[in-house]
Amino acid sequence: MKEEPRDNYLASGHNACPGCGVSIAVRLILRASGNNVVVVSPTGCLETFTSPYGMSAWEVPWVHSLFENAPAVASGIRAALDYQGNKDTQVMVIGGDGATYDIGLGSLSGMLERNQNILYICYDNEAYMNTGIQRSSATPLGASTTTTPATASSYGEKLQKKDMIGIANSHNIEYVATATIAYPQDLMRKIKTGLSVNGAAYLHMLTPCPLGWGFESDETIAMSRLSVQTGFFPLVEYENGELIRVKKIIDLKPVNNYLRAQRRFKHLTTDENQDIKDKVCQVVRRNIKKYGLQENSNNDY
Ligand SMILES: Cc1ncc(C[n+]2csc(CCOP(=O)(O)OP(=O)(O)O)c2C)c(N)n1
Ligand SMILES: [Mg+2]
Q: What is d(CA 168, CA 111) in angstroms, rounded to the nearest whole number?
């Protein structure tokens, strides 16, 4: 197997929780991008744990924007670099699901429409984790959060997760993909591809959160892998809106394995919530069909 460079541009000593999926993702992202890059991050866990007052874990130029305007800030940085004739320095946004799906969506849409040379990366931990696990429009159906708690009279989140891949593709950009930390080579290849296209690219990255999802801190990679192996989080790639690659599931795992492993879904595994669990399974079955995730269908790596 080809050796990847071992560069690390996210210094140790930051104060992420043990097992934080985001910190693992960002180390891989920066390893793939190299250090000729400017990163913009909106408010969220990543910003908070990498930049406590007076300190920074970033070994590359990094800008903290408002929650709602990271894509606009990145656009300005790209325009300034272009004006200087600097085509080599890359610009990336790394923002949470709250910033991407909800509060910064308008700004992101503008950025994708302008189609400047910027890679937008959403790190998706499926809730507003930094402020105490509130639901976002990335929270999956049935998940318990502090604003959609599972109680005797409620089964948790009532809505389906928003289709960000569809939204990104609707902007007719050259590259849209999904990735997760259990598949680091795949993740880094997608970062490199996203940076190599001549225009805006969108990469969606699932980053499991031990605290918010309710699992042990040494299970983060296992949870990331299970999300793919159960069909919850398909690994896909689009070029100019066309699906070009899908990671097949060789050994499809039961959805129950994923639900049982996380406190936020535990209530779905009881008899009373069987109908919601069926709806969750339907979402997964739809993924499997839509992307031909099972071994004997057409798209493959
Ligand atoms: C306009 C605005 N609204 C709300 C907040 C409070 N706030 C700070 S971080 C955060 C959660 C961020 O969620 P997400 O983008 O998913 O990132 P995560 O914390 O999960 O990493 C919120 C609501 C804010 N800083 N600015
Ligand atoms: Mg989040």
A: 11
